[in-house]
């Protein structure tokens, strides 16, 4: 399970880079556990929460439902 979460984090960071993210999110791939501190602002978290994703509080994201493929 831990290895799969790490693979999903790497996939997430790589996808952000491929999509042209203006920030370096590589710190996410170095975190442990089921939650990640995103480094997003409160406003960014609110927008994501309303439109796209499940977020906990101000900083943590839960990596769920992402396929390896």
TrEMBL record:
Domain Aminotransferase class I/classII large: 1-57
Keywords: Aminotransferase, Pyridoxal phosphate, Transferase
Domain of life: Bacteria
Enzyme Commission designation: 2.6.1.1
Biological processes per GO annotation: L-phenylalanine biosynthetic process from chorismate via phenylpyruvate
Quaternary structure annotation from Swiss-Prot or TrEMBL: Homodimer.
Cofactor(s), by name: pyridoxal 5'-phosphate
Alphabetical list of Pfam families matching this protein: Aminotran_1_2 (PF00155)
Protein name: Aspartate aminotransferase
GO cellular component term of the entry, any: cytosol
Annotated GO MF terms: identical protein binding; L-aspartate:2-oxoglutarate aminotransferase activity; L-tyrosine-2-oxoglutarate transaminase activity; pyridoxal phosphate binding
């Amino acid at each position: 399970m831990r290895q799969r979460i790490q693979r999903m984090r790497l996939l997430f960071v790589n996808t952000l880079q491929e999509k042209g993210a203006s920030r370096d999110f590589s710190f996410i791939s170095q975190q442990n556990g089921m939650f990640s501190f995103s480094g997003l602002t409160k406003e960014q978290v609110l927008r994501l929460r309303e439109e796209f994703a499940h977020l906990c509080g101000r900083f943590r994201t839960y990596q769920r439902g992402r396929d390896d493929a």
